[in-house]
């Protein structure tokens, strides 16, 4: 449509209308720019200017409230600014939670609770808000509501999950209820829960958490199984430790590190990497003993374990393996070794001992004077209470200087009944 401008009056009217529109636009954008400019300057005068320039901006009201609360230490003034913010925009959960914090400082519990609830309605899933709400409900004695909020935390914020679990266990030390209603079925959260219970030596609850964790059938880091097994061994919970190791075959990718009826020693030919955990070989570093897998020497496979002694005073080589066994049962042990340039009184030897009583069931001859692969072997019967053996390489006599190289390979332990069945 065309507008005829064939008269001076119409031309003047159009110009005036354009000027008015332009002035309004400049006024509006100027106020918006001014509000934004002043809001970025973190002092009271500029924040107040931002609010005056843009009185309908909820964010500026909220920023002013935070300044009044955190810097001015004036919760009364902060409440006024926060109230204006939530009136302008009631859908921002952070505004409600900051308002609740101001009410808390004023001791106004009812208003604090109301603001918290409005904040949770606005955003029920943000973990840091749920954390604040959970702590509030704990203080108020509303344990069930607090636990519900802590579940929100654990579902979405790993960094807060350990603290949330600790609080949940403290207020409700019922592992069945927590697993059913509070702790989300996520491997990371279950792992944290397991760590917490282990640290507090809650053996039976920890076993229930592990069961739930295993039932998720999700991949787990081997270190988790190592830590839990180490704890179980320390608590004499050998059967549970064996079960965890069996389940770790699938959960932790450790199927190659399982014992068999043909050999209870894991990785006895050193064909696999040494895990230094669980029921595989475990070792500790020492300046006097060096340990290495040697591909240039082997008895039955493609490498062996090389131990280099250069020690003034040691009791063993610093490497061994925990072996679950049955009480009152006969076993046959065998291994092969080579030795070079061994110096010192006596020498190293294999020993199998009850981990808990230190009863020695087998001790080999000294592992020396062999420039070819030589077998050592023997048989023994475990005691009526023996369930876990420690296989180690002792220094005999202990505490004496020793130097030289020792290779071991094809380490084997088998139950005599199983051997007879073969």
Structure description:
- The chain starts with 7 loop residues before the first helix and ends with a helix.
- Among the domains are: 185-258, no CATH class; 282-421, Jelly Rolls (Sandwich).
- With 422 residues, the protein is of the alpha+beta class.
- It has helices at 8-39, 44-53, 58-70, 75-88, 93-106, 109-122, 127-139, 143-156, 161-171, 175-181, 187-199, 203-215, 222-234, 238-251, 416-421, and strands spanning 282-283, 289-294, 304-314, 316-324, 330-343, 347-354, 360-363, 374-381, 388-396, 400-415.
- It is 48% helix and 21% strand.
- Strands 1-4-9-6-7 form a 5-stranded antiparallel sheet, with no helix packed on it.
SSE inventory with pairings:
Layout: H1 8-39, H2 44-53, H3 58-70, H4 75-88, H5 93-106, H6 109-122, H7 127-139, H8 143-156, H9 161-171, H10 175-181, H11 187-199, H12 203-215, H13 222-234, H14 238-251, E1 282-283, E2 289-294, E3 304-314, E4 316-324, E5 330-343, E6 347-354, E7 360-363, E8 374-381, E9 388-396, E10 400-415, H15 416-421
Antiparallel strand pairs: 1-4, 2-3, 3-10, 4-9, 5-8, 5-10, 6-7, 6-9
